[in-house]
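Q: For a teaching session next week I want to show students how multiple molecules come together into a single three-dimensional assembly. I've collected the sequence lines for a complex. Could you give me the predicted structure tokens for the whole thing so I can convert them for display?
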Amino acid sequence: MSNKNNAQEVEETVDFDKFDKSPSGFKIFWKELLKDKLALFSLIFLVLITAFVFGISWILDQDEIVTVDLFAIYEPPSSEFWLGTDYGGRDIFGQLIIGTRNSLLIGILVTVMSGFIGIVFGVVAGYFGGHIDNVMMRIVDFFMVLPNLMIIIVFVAIVPKYSVWSFSLVMTAFLWMGIARLIRSRALQEKELDYVQASRTLGSSHTKIIFTQVLPNITSLIVVTMTLNLAANIGLESGLSFLGFGFPEDTPSLGTLLGYATNPQTLEFRWWIWVPAAVLILILMLAVRNVGEALKRAADARQRRA
Amino acid sequence: MALLKVDDLKIHFPIRGGILNRKIDDVRAVDGVSFEVKQGETYGLVGESGSGKTTTGKAIMGLNNITSGDIYFEGTHLNAKKGKKVDVRRDVQMIFQDPYSSLNPRKRVLDIIAEPFRNYEKMTKKEEMFKVQELLEKVGLSSDSVYKYPHEFSGGQRQRIGVARAIALKPKLIIADEPVSALDVSVQAQVLNFLQDIQKDLNLTILFIAHDLGVIKHMCNRIGIMYRGRFVEEGLRDDIFNDPQHIYTKRLVAAIPDVDPRRREEHQSFRAQVKEEYEQSFNDYFDENGLAHSLKPVTDTHKVALPERG
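A: Of course. Below is the structure for the complete assembly, covering every listed component.
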């Protein structure tokens, strides 16, 4: 009798469509963001700058910006050139916009692609263990011993059209192993816990257990690594550009702009060329980190503030 | 016919070592165990740590690879062909030892208890919710805890959630793997009594794995005592507790603490006496490798691992 009453009560008070599953990760993250103003501000900043950069670069003509204008070399900021010009008379502001777009795109693409491959590879290897794990990890080892810098240099030399996409793919090929190893080690640990065996006894399939039971429990690790990777991957392109294996000067990026600061004259007297790019990289990384921290807390019910 | 029949079950884990990581030896976790569990009874599997009780339980669930031997459930051969496992999970369920790791911390109670429904039965969300609430009430938790996460519950409450999940599909056999050893004593009694109530309600058969003889005495009709992967004695509760035949069982029973402080001295000397007997007659009761002999019937219900005489 009491059971029935209770169930009826619940039926009346609970909106079933609203609670069909555990509250989605997005909802929890949103609540967490509302609690953490710094992260909220960072996210808004990131969204704005991404939208702004992608929007403006849609209108801007890259060819026009990277055209050399010998009459406007090293112009300081003015109403015509908002952030001055570089040694080729090219508008820094325009380069900054397109450069930020390119750098962000590479960072996001490389992080998402390497993350996806690494996570699936790692969690499968860790979950099944034994021979499967052994074979899969030897493949990872093989990729790790490849001299990646040399291969990237060769790639730069032989590929005729060097675009954001091809660059991201090559970087991905050498960046997924770290994530795979990390995720595997956690999956190995996780699969020993009783809830995995409990799920087996309750009739769930391996695929279901991997993706709905084990994976959610390592999201905090995934998010933290991916965030750190995103920050690192935005910087990665700068490093390669600095070494001379990044994009050519007609494809501006934050890295090529920073690279001008290798000239001591520029470093000391023509701050408008490199300071905006440096500040932007700094702010971008801080913002990414703040959002990542909020995500990390949202992923772990015990750390939540909301 | 017995509900569950385990026949000469052996589970060995390889020890690898040396060059090329070859198999050099086995850990004989379970080494020739046979027993039967009848419909409606509670069968207790007792033994010290590492004696193979849990491994036996998990093998019946199909969570361990079986080296040799057969397991029959209602006459169905569970490990008939390699790779082709018979799915009896609807009828055999398990309660896990550790209430902290056996519930997925990222899932709400609703999702945890509804997991078997989602795998085996097509239910609407309303039916599912109704069923889960019914189960929660049955295990003595309030039905509004469906949206809570496991970390919001105490150990005893978590174990009840584990029980609710195990009885969700109305199984015939429940393997309770030390269901109370992670709980403190006051909560142990709660969970045990409520397990007994549920057993009566649903006419469950329980294979109860434990190392606590007090708990076993409270719960079980028949008891099997394991030592190093083998049975040393099997019999009804009275056979084991009032008339232990094997020296290992005698020592186990003697180790049960006595609550009466006035008999402390007496009990202590009795224990010392049993210990002495154990040390002196160890070789009579165990073979040259320190393993138990095979079981010989003493009475109709009572089997003891005694050496062949003469």
